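Posting for a labmate who doesn't have an account.
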Amino acid sequence: MTRIVIRADAGALPELGTGHVLRAIKLADALKLTPEFQGAEILFATREQTPFELGGKLVRQAGYKTIDHSGLEPNSKFELRSIIQARPSIVIFDRLETNAHLVVGLKNSGIFVINFDDLGLGRNNADLAINSLLQNVEPKQNTFVGYKYLILLSDKIVRNETRRVASKAFVSFGGYDSRQLSTYFLNLIPKIQGPDRYEIAISDLDSHDLSNFEDLAGTVGVISNVEICVQQRPVNYMQLLSTSDLAIVSGGLTAFDCVQAGVPAIAIPQYKHQLENIKKLEKLGCLKMGARNMELDPQLICSLVTGL
């Protein structure tokens, strides 16, 4: 039996969030449907100590078994040993950086290595490297670069006509809101003329902060005479997005989900690599930039939401 180990984390940390694990789960689901991997055993190696608990939870909810990598430093000899001990024939990494020692060590054990959006030196040694989002990499024979290699949450492309007035807006700033854009946008709603309902999806708040955010949303809703619905990690995430007239998002995978779903979007970058993707998508006419590069501009975002 073919055994595949997917190494990915999710957590409340900058440039981590949930995107890596959710993409990896989507990939695993797709592999199981192919003739080549129908009977394959797919395991997820993920850290589960604080602040990485969410990764294992998401994997188990999706029906996959985990290998606990708590306390194992990425790219260390201990991580290498743990993966080899699982005896996979294929290892898939979905993280920002692997090193050559790790990848070469796996290959020397007869393991086929695939890396997603890897900016580390390990990408050069992988059997297959796919850089769909992080495209500023040196061309190599093993590397495939471009948006056509994206793995998105939705399988369907929906062509929605842009409405003159957006009555419902979807708001989400990723699995980890590094810049606290959810609170930033919430405080702008009283200055916006447009949507009468906002669906705000958040994921990285503890119970205390979530309660405070919900209280603020309630106050803003009363002041602005709009309905604001706050949901933490909603299971119907894609349905909320695809049935909205407008989306205000960051520049991660959700921005591309907006494009695929045909939902007009305004994007604000959390990180510099997101800024580059937002610029490309705006140039293609897929969305609007809601900031002055990395600088937040309240007047700009208000005018864009009001005018779309």
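Reply:
Got it, the structure tokens are right above this. The chain has eleven helices and 15 strands.
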